[in-house]
Design goal:
heterodimer; A: mainly alpha; B: Rossmann fold; 9 helices; 23% strand
Chain lengths: 267, 277
């Protein structure tokens, strides 16, 4: 276990160093070897972007906070809705066959097209951010959780039947805990997506938020702010994922080991 | 409640009335292509209180189906089952049996202690009583030290012992075991066979044990019900009069060999006939 953990960290470190090195090298080639006039907007030096972030961090953080907090609320609501939908579909076959085609169709509508419609309906930027983030979140959570409910092995169910378990008890003692890892698989997909959705809504004419900074910097020619905003957005997505992954580690202690190391000892 | 008093004496004394009575049970089901398959045809067996019996046969003989009918996890197409005068459904709803499956069926998110506790939570047994029974059962199967571990940290043999402890925790009147050791290696299985007999002698429960392993059935049982496949039906009832307690020496005795080879020959007869058809 410690060996696996150490090698995993090493992999992350190597990747990080390699990406930074490649970026700096690329920027150097563009600016100082090919003397590209657009070098600063195509690929600026990473340390320049870092300097911009260091200089502008209060305004970047504020903008990120606006976007991220709404994404988080939408993510929470969407996850809750998705989960309840999964429970409903697992309880009733009819509910599943009615709901599932709509779910699929819902995923075919591009968010880019949906966001303005939502904005026209609710006429409020924050509410739009929340609704779109929730809309993006609920599907992966519902689909993943439902597949968790369906993956419970037959013998585990039969054990519950031998105890004469009622439907609520069956969910409480078996289906819900069993499907927690599946739920997290859905949450991990949805978290960065909800951040992206919130940024997208920013761009539809909001007054604040990281998406607004991106847009203004792009058209205003503020290359340094643009790249600083891009990195901030990326960091928000990564953070949301890591947050969920960390929560999973804490809440799912029975999966701490890698599958390969399970059941090693002798009887 | 009787907490520390054993429910039965250590040496089984058989009642005259059967504890489990299976009468003319048949089971027909449709397979995936819609063809009717006779899983069981007209099977009748009586199992006495405190008796250890095995349902033995090759795959397709319906032994697991029969066990699941007794457990009310399946309903027979025809025939009846009575368990101490009750229907299997009543027996299930009153938790009169403990069941052990082929795989340990432990809940991964529960520690060993909490896995054994599971049925007690569901029966709303008082907290202190739960603790007491869990400790007792874990000691009985020799896993007291592992109470705080998660299932993935235990070997297959240990996990199966947790399954047995869980089945016994509800103080069932009888124990149903569906090939519980078939996924284990020979050495672990023989050890668990001996452990099981020790536990059985201590608790005196009626045990119905499903297996496809002839020597396992002979080693464990008072009587072996031999089932033959296609259609599944009862082909022989063999009394195993080997002395108890049984041990490794039992497995090396000539009586043991002759019982095992006798049962094996009866199967050869079935397959020889089948080959000619």
């Amino acid at each position: 276990m410690p060996v696996a953990e150490r090698s995993r960290r090493l992999v992350v470190l190597v990747w990080l160093v390699a990406v930074i090195a490649a970026w700096e090298l690329g920027a150097f080639l563009l600016a100082d070897v090919f003397h590209d006039a657009m070098a600063a907007s195509k690929l600026p030096f990473l340390h320049d972007i870092a300097a911009t972030i260091a200089k502008n961090w209060p305004s970047l953080l504020e903008a990120a906070g606006v976007t991220f907090s709404k994404a988080a609320i939408g993510f929470g609501l969407g996850a809750l809705f998705g989960y309840l939908l999964a429970v409903l579909m697992s309880v009733s076959r009819i509910a599943e066959s009615i709901a599932f085609p709509y779910l699929i169709v819902s995923q075919m509508i591009p968010v880019l097209g949906l966001a303005p419609i939502i904005f026209t309906l609710v006429r409020d930027m924050n509410a739009s951010r929340i609704v779109i983030a929730a809309y993006i979140t609920f599907f992966p959570v519902a689909a993943s959780t439902l597949s968790g409910f369906k993956s419970v092995d037959e013998e585990k169910r039969q054990l519950m039947r031998s105890y004469a378990a009622t439907m609520p008890v069956l969910y409480l003692k078996l289906l819900v805990p069993f499907s927690v890892p599946y739920l997290f698989a859905g949450l991990k997909i949805a978290a960065p997506l909800s951040v992206t959705a919130s940024i997208l809504v920013d761009m539809l004419g909001s007054k604040n938020g990281i998406g607004v900074k991106l847009l203004y910097a792009l058209y205003g020619g503020a290359k340094d702010i643009f790249w600083a905003s891009v990195l901030t957005s990326a960091a928000m997505g990564v953070f949301s994922y890591l947050f969920i992954a960390q929560a999973e580690k804490v809440l799912v202690p029975w999966r701490k080991s890698l599958p390969s190391s399970a059941g090693g000892q002798s009887a | 409640m009787l907490i520390n008093t054993p429910m039965f004496t250590a040496t089984p004394v058989f009642d005259t009335a059967p504890e489990i009575e299976v009468k003319n049970v048949s089971m027909v089901y449709e397979n995936s292509v819609g063809k009717e398959v006779d899983a069981l045809t007209d099977v009748s067996i009586d199992i006495k209180k405190g008796e250890f019996v095995s349902l033995l046969g090759p795959s397709g003989c319906g032994k697991t189906t029969l066990l699941r009918i007794i457990a009310d996890l399946l309903e027979p197409t025809s025939g009846s089952v009575r368990i101490a005068g009750r229907t299997p459904r009543e027996a299930r709803l009153k938790q009169k049996y403990g069941i052990v499956f082929q795989s340990p069926v432990l809940y991964d998110w529960r520690t060993i202690r909490n896995n054994v506790r599971l049925p007690l939570e569901m029966m709303k047994v008082a907290k202190e009583e739960q603790e007491k029974r869990v400790d007792k059962q874990l000691d009985l199967v020799g896993l007291g030290k592992f109470a705080g571990n998660y299932p993935y940290q235990l070997s297959g043999g240990m996990q199966q012992r947790v399954g047995i402890a869980r089945a016994l925790a509800i103080k069932p009147e009888f124990l149903l075991m569906d090939e519980p050791f078939s996924a284990l290696d020979e050495f672990t299985r023989e050890k668990l066979n001996e452990d099981l007999l020790r536990i059985w002698a201590k608790t005196g429960k009626t045990v119905v044990f499903v297996t496809h392993n002839i020597s396992e059935a002979v080693f464990l049982s008072d009587r072996v019900f031999v089932l033959s496949p296609h259609p599944g039906r009862l082909s022989a009832i063999i009394d195993i009069d080997l002395p108890r307690p049984r041990s490794q020496e039992t497995r090396e005795s000539p009586e043991f060999f002759s019982l095992v080879s006798g049962i094996r020959k009866s199967f050869e007869g079935v397959y020889a006939r089948r080959g000619k058809e």
